[in-house]
Amino acid sequence: MKKKSTLGKLNVFLALVLAIVLIANVVVIYTKEVPVAANAETSTSEEADAPVIEALAANTYAGIDFKTNDDVVNYYAEAYNKTKAQTKEYVLDSGETVTWYSMLGEEDLQVKDIMIEGKSNAMINNLVPGIVGGLFTKGSAGLSPSSNRTPAEDVDESNGSLTTCRLKPEDVIATNVKDNGDGTITLQLQPKAFNMSHRGMDAQGNLFNTLGAIDSVVDSISALSWQSGTTAENCLVNYKNGYATVTIDTKTGLITKADYHMEAHISVNHANVAVLKDKSANVLVTYDVHFPASAEYLKTNVKATAK
Prior knowledge:
By secondary structure, the chain is α+β, with helices and mostly antiparallel strands. The chain is built from six helices and 16 strands. Strands 6, 8, 9, 10, 11, 12, 13, 14 and 15 form a nine-stranded antiparallel sheet that branches. Strands 5-4-16 form a three-stranded antiparallel sheet. β8 and β9 (184-191) form a beta hairpin. The longest helix has 20 residues, at 10-29.
């Protein structure tokens, strides 16, 4: 059973976001004047990669020693592998019984901070998220960066298995640990920034369901061309500032709750769309996955009920 989520094709989705943003700007120009934020700041892929979570305080948490980021990543990997090894039977609305990961997630995607030529336009910021939201179909998969609900079909773009953790100590820029006082601890992990990240192939893709390169997809959009330069030079998807927050039962070694917050900072330069020439745009796409998914979410979005 294939994972029925737009995430599997989100490189196409991101390219469409860029086109929608730029085309929306054309619509706005030819309708009426709208408020524009002067002197607005816009993030770029050249900004320094910096922690957005607290730094680890070396200590003993719930009886477990965490002295370095390496200790946190290694403990997370052990819990990840143990949790992901568990499966459960689900009954589809069709009556078919399938075996999926026990812990599945709930997806949420948002488009924010839209900037054209470094300025925020009120109409575009109201118009685009609604259009984009209609293109995204929520689904469910195993712990990130899973590509599927079914372990045998959980693979990367090279058909390599994603059933075990790929995150390595050298992938992270920061971690921390909190003792919850109830036998559980909560870890936070922030991976290093990466442009055009591929799921399971780099620091960001080893923690999140990242989307791969979008060059070829952008090139297929006939309405979009470049005033100068190539797609690879003008279109960047920089993954940064995302982090995972994971709660683990220290007695069982299993993950009980997890939230993966991924940020894709999209930047396009020298774009031509219709009458617009040599324009730049910046868009923030956030993708959040919460584990475990509720019974209601699974019933609504993947038409399945746990046995």
